[in-house]
TrEMBL record:
It holds the Pfam family Peptidase_M48. The chain crosses the membrane at residues 52-74, 95-116, 136-157, 169-188, 280-298. Its cofactor is Zn(2+). Keywords: Hydrolase, Membrane, Metal-binding, Metalloprotease, Protease, Transmembrane, Transmembrane helix, Zinc. One of its GO terms (biological process) is proteolysis. Residues 418-441 are annotated as: Disordered. One of its GO terms (molecular function) is metal ion binding. Residues 418-427 have a biased composition (Basic and acidic residues). It comes from Egicoccus halophilus. This is Peptidase M48 domain-containing protein.
Length: 441
């Protein structure tokens, strides 16, 4: 029964991901309007290059730390000492807590450099250093606690149901994901992104026009106090059912109301497409795949002997579990990002249908590069590991094709650049544009 339920959940998630609204095909274009000046591209490259290095090192450390406790004699001895002879689920959770703390401390210098020094130097961080460290501690502590609890539950299930635990854990894990998404706006977000109802004004009026064209769906729109921590512009959909809401950053309201409404249209599209619900359903397929693979790993007599464990549910196998989870996350991330980009492209397409103004969305998309220094075309490995959205170049090219299909005239590149001059990041210097397909910071 549990196997049938788990497979059914996985099939439902895959179906929800495959049969979903997609971005309609549009004519291919040259992407001329995705061209940026040398000043912009130089600033983007200077800002992004150190972040790419930090990301690469952090990715390696994410594998290296648990690997050190599996592949070295010293590491295995530490785990055995920490787990003790009983090595039950609770002891496994405590070992997981310790290993998680060590993993976070290993990358803390990178986080401080990137989040405090680099972001501060480029003017994106508004949080004080003590405040940033407090935020890091809260996020890290929540992660440590979450990992410890999940490890306790995992080992308890493995010991209690040695034959059917992957299927039971898939069902239970999917329900946990649904509960987490449901409660996030009312339990977590008040601490991480406090928000207030959207006040009346030009931005609210522009959003109301979008809602009217969408058929006036019920939407809870709130303004997140992101300026406490960053100068970046953004918006997001969060929650499920009764807790679902659209949160726009207060920084976003600094843009013209029409551009704010274009970003809102994109988030409204996510709600229309039930993307968070689809994501929860797809987590069932991801969990089933990961847990079945983990079962093979835990059943390895060679790994059990190396860890000094007596069975798959022995708490001394916890480092093996964390290493397997890190590897599965690394392998699965490009797949998850590809699914995410598909959903984001569909939301872009719906947003331009709602606004009927590709020029507006095009100018808003360019803001992410000229203001927030998003790379128009990031390196392939960055796209694989971090590319949850289509690139700026891809989004602009799609809008060009949509406008061509609909017979809508777009502004020239020179007109776009003149209009966005007051939105440039301070590090951007005036320079003539490069030819399309030039530098790729």
């Amino acid at each position: 029964m549990w196997a049938l339920a788990a497979v059914g959940l996985a099939a439902l998630g895959l179906a929800a991901s495959v049969w979903r609204p997609l971005a309609p095909a549009v004519p291919a274009t040259t992407g001329q309007l995705a061209t940026f000046g040398d000043g912009v591209l130089t600033a983007v490259a200077a800002y992004r290059a150190p972040r790419y290095v930090v990301s690469a090192i952090a990715t390696v450390l994410g594998i290296a730390v648990p690997l050190g406790f599996v592949a070295t004699r010293w590491g295995r001895e530490r785990v055995r000492v920490w787990a003790g002879d009983a090595a039950g689920p609770w002891r496994a959770g405590l070992v997981a807590l310790r290993l998680s703390i060590l993993g976070s401390l290993a990358v803390l210098p990178l986080a401080v450099y990137s989040g405090v020094l680099h972001e501060g130097r480029w003017g994106f961080r508004t949080r004080s250093v003590p405040g940033w460290l407090l935020d890091w501690g809260v996020r890290a502590g929540s992660r440590w606690l979450g990992i410890a609890v999940l490890v306790v539950l995992l080992f308890a299930v493995v010991r209690r149901w040695p034959d059917s635990w992957p299927f039971r854990a898939t069902v239970g894990g999917t329900l946990l994901v649904a509960g987490a998404v449901l409660l996030h706006p009312v339990v977590v977000q008040p601490w991480t992104l406090p928000s207030v109802p959207l006040a009346a004004g030009p931005a609210a009026d522009a959003m109301a026009d979008v809602l009217d064209r969408a058929g006036d769906p019920p939407v809870d729109v709130r303004v997140g106090e992101a300026s406490r921590r960053t100068t970046r512009v953004n918006a997001l959909v969060t929650g499920l059912g009764p807790t679902q809401r659209v949160v726009v950053y207060d920084n976003l309201l600094e843009l013209p109301p029409a551009q704010v409404a274009s970003v809102f249209a994109h988030e409204l599209a996510h709600q229309e497409h039930a993307d968070l619900t689809r994501g929860v359903a797809l987590s069932g397929a991801a969990l089933l795949t990961a847990l079945v693979l983990l079962r093979f790993v835990l059943s390895s007599r060679r790994l059990q002997r190396a860890a000094g464990a007596d069975a798959p549910g022995d708490g001394r196998m916890v480092a093996v579990v964390l290493l397997a989870a890190a590897v599965l996350e690394l392998v699965g991330t490009p797949i998850g990002n590809a699914v995410s980009r598909r959903a984001e492209a569909a939301a872009d397409a719906r947003a331009v249908e709602l606004t009927r103004d590709p020029a507006l969305l095009l100018s808003t998309t360019r803001v992410f590069t000229v203001r927030d220094l998003a790379s128009p075309t990031p390196p392939r490995w960055v796209r694989l590991l971090h590319g949850t959205h289509p690139t700026v170049t891809e989004r602009i090219t799609y809008l060009e094709g949509w406008a061509e299909r609909e017979g809508i005239e777009l502004p020239t590149l020179a007109e776009l650049e003149r209009a966005e001059e007051d939105q440039h990041h301070p590090a951007v210097s005036d320079a003539p544009p490069r030819e399309p397909g030039g530098a790729r910071p």
